[in-house]
Amino acid sequence: MENEEKSLNFIEQIVEKDLQEGKNNGRIQTRFPPEPNGYLHIGHVKAICMDFGIADRYHGVCNLRFDDTNPAKEDTEYVDSIQQDIAWLGFHWGNVYYASDYFQKLYDLAIRFIREGKAYVDEQTAEQIAEQKGTPTEPGVASPYRDRPVEENLRLFQAMQNGEIEEGKMVLRAKIDMANSNMHFRDPIIYRIITSHPHHRTGRTWNVYPMYDFAHGQSDYFEGVTHSICTLEFVVHRPLYDYFIDQFADSDYRPHQYEFNRLNITYTVMSKRKMLQLVKEGLVAGWDDPRMPTVCGLRRRGYTPEAIRAFINTIGYTKVEGTIDYTWLENAIREDQKEKAPRVCAIFDPVKLVLTNYQGEGEDLTAENIDGHPELGTRTMRFAKELYIERQDFLEEADKNFFRLSPNGREVRLKNAYIIQATGCDKDAAGNITTVYATYDPNSKSGTEGGNRKTKATINWVECHTCVDVEARLYDRLFKVENPSAEEGDFRDLLNPESLITKTIKAEAWLRNEMKATEWKDGIAQVNHYQFLKQGYFVVDPDTTADKLVMNRTASLKDNWQK
Ligand code: ATP
Ligand code: MG
User: Which residue, 473, 474, 467, 477, is CA-closest to 544?
Assistant: First the structure.
């Protein structure tokens, strides 16, 4: 495995120490706890690689737990996509659990808290409760309902669950310490009423739902999690996590929470709320729009699980927040594909080239998919009298630094084919070049003895009559600024208007093999990757049909954004 060679990250060090000390009898159990309120993004992958990675490495188990405590935002569509994406990334979970499996247990626990004088029903508005929180240096103000008798609390909480109380009118709060220096201890809300939406699994059974802090640690305890790993914003929640478990635990076993730095990437957003907004408002084509930082978006863009995991492995885990340059992600797919993707010719801005001395119908040339590696496959390239080349590869009048085609007696090689010399061109009334003329040397074919003759430049080409039109979708950064979340104003105004440019290009005939209905496996399109010479990495898009080949640019060959 790739990470075997790297030094241990700080969480692996903790786990190894726990194992040496014989904690939990050497049992390692983690969980990945997504809320099913959106699709997974690359930030989640960082957590996934940690949670599943620890379990894999130390022969433990990682369970998938859906943190489904807010029916207003959650849906089975998200539950399904999350499982699909984790499996695609190559990870295997032990069990699938849902926080909603524990609704009864958590409700009973809340009743127990009320009975023990550790919780009370508050009738104030959310604003009033927030106002009374105080500041880290000033204690909060107690709610007027804080000292309600137990019986009244029990009756009201029951009424909340019975649907007798309107949403937002009452909450259940833990009665802890309104002066605690940790604000999370100032009587946190542990239950709220949600009647406006049925739950995607429990329907209308529940009218009250536990808050994150009352559900997460408890769920970890119920399941036997040993290492509950999350991101740094939860550091301040950890004392509360421990406090709630201590109130009801009936054994010495304790799950422990550990935190690492979130993943942020330049030129994108990493918030499900913002992504949902982009999808709902049609600012992107969907969750799997290839510009989205979602797992399904990256997949459609042409990222492989290996490239994504290598990226996560490169950035590592620390305890300080930071932002990773988008280029790192692109470098991961370049590195992944450079020795894999067949290198083919595609002409983005075609001009016709006629080889005036070429006789006959044409011929099939053999090309290596990756130069110098015949074992990685070869293909046939059709060659004939009329070709397309890139417009910029010909200049009618060139200076001595232009090594490509010009009627100046210089020789240029056609990739995988013959050496040619330009002789002239035709232009239209506006002065645009319509046809370039050249002669070819029949004794200069690549792969023959004459093929060894050196030229200063090699240019790409496709044969006019057999080449295939491709709808190329050229993707770029979704946002035009480095950190859209840090800017004032509406993040939607910062979208890069040139994040998608669609172009019809001409690719070599071999790609016609791709013009068929996409094959799907477990709901995932099975598509091939290519490198278009001098252009970038491309992948076939599932919009492809027998009539139209659609391809997405995964990444350019080199970084164009380097400052
Ligand atoms: P969002 O803020 O986008 O809604 P979230 O943190 O609420 O994300 P969850 O579904 O609760 O999303 O996240 C599941 C797990 O993924 C959590 O353990 C969380 O810490 C982790 N996670 C979420 N975003 C990131 C990120 N950007 N980097 C690393 N881990 C993340
Ligand atoms: Mg969350």
Answer: 473
With tokens 């204690």, the residue in question is 139
SS3 109: helix
| pLDDT at 562 exceeding the cut of 60 | no
Starting at the edge strand that comes first in sequence, how are the strands of the sheet with 343-344 ordered? 343-344, 529-532, 536-540, 549-556, 468-475, 500-507, 346-347
Nearest CA to ligand 1 atom 23: 44
Side by side, which strands form the sheet with 96-98?
Answer: 29-32, 61-66, 96-98
CA–CA separation, 391 vs 461, rounded Å? 11
CA of 173 to the centre of ligand 2 (A): 20
Judge whether residue 419 has pLDDT over 80: yes
pLDDT of residue 309 exceeding 50, the answer is: yes
What pLDDT sits at residue 561? 60
Where would I find the H helices in 339-463?
none
CA–centroid distance, 301 to ligand 1, in Å, is 22
Mean pLDDT across the stretch 448-473?
Answer: 95
Looking at the CA of 79, name the nearest ligand.
1
Taking the model in full, what pTM does it have?
0.95
Residues marked as catalytic = 35, 262, 272
Lowest mean pLDDT among 43-47, 105-109, 385-389, 445-449: 445-449
Separation of alpha carbons 471 and 48, rounded Å: 35
Task: Return the residue whose CA atom lies nearest to atom 10 of ligand 1.
Answer: 34
3 state DSSP class of 111: helix
3-state helix, strand, coil in the chain (%, to 5): 30, 25, 45
Residues facing residue 427 across a β-bridge:
433
Q: Is the CB of 34 under 6 A from ligand 1?
A: yes
Backbone angles phi, psi at 200, to 5 degrees: -65, -15
Strand partners, 439: 421
How far apart CA 402 and CA 223 sit, in angstroms, is 69
pLDDT greater than 50 at residue 563:
no
- DSSP letter at 7 equals P
Phi, psi of 506 (to 5 degrees): -115, 120
pLDDT tens string 178-231: 999 999 999 999 999 999 999 999 999 999 999 999 999 999 999 999 999 999
CA of 284 to the centre of ligand 1 (A): 21
d(CA 407, CA 451): 22
- φ/ψ of 360, rounded to 5, equals 95, -175
> Do residues 279 and 287 make contact, with C-beta atoms less than 8 angstroms apart?
yes
pLDDT of the residue at 431: 95
pLDDT digits (tens, 9 = 90+) for 338-363: 999 999 999 999 999 999 999 999 99
Q: Give the pLDDT confidence score for residue 558 in this predicted structure.
A: 84
Residues 14, 18, 19, 21, Cα dihedral to 10°: 140
Reply yes or no on whether the pLDDT at 164 is more than 90: yes
Residue type for 43, please?
Answer: G
